[in-house]
Amino acid sequence: MHGEPSVARQLGEALRERDETIAVAESCTGGLLGSTITGVPGASDYFVGGIISYTNRTKRRFLAVSRELLERYGAVSEQVATAMARHARDEAGADWGVSTTGYAGSAPDSATAPAGTVFVGVANAGRGPDSDPFTQVERHRFDGTRNEVRNRAVTRTLRTTLAHVRDGSR
Known about the structure:
Elements: H1 5-18, E1 22-26, H2 32-38, E2 47-52, H3 56-63, H4 67-73, H5 78-92, E3 96-102, E4 117-124, E5 134-141, H6 146-167
Helix pairs in contact: 1-6
């Protein structure tokens, strides 16, 4: 299994304990995040689904990321990671939405960030008695091959999400 199974297992246990659900919107990780989460037995208790949106066109069509947002900030940006995480959460009716967008391999010449740049978005619906909706995005820079960057992005995303779920708030 790719990513870090023990963290995926811990995330699943934390979600199950809180009776909460999660949905993912992936770009640079290309389905690896969802695959790692669902690699844990019983994931159907908390994982509701995901969208792999590898191009701007699919980000617009399936994740409702506006053309204006993509043109102004680029697909690899805090703003797009925010929109992706919120849309995954809202459309799936999940408590948590998580997104990854970045350059796992070489970045295009027009890119404003180097290869290995990944934005991880975490959006919470704020359904608990002591929580409010929030979205938080982290920017990371991972070294390594395309697959190493993807694996590191998945591990970081799982750890970040687990910390938020355990905290139940920001």
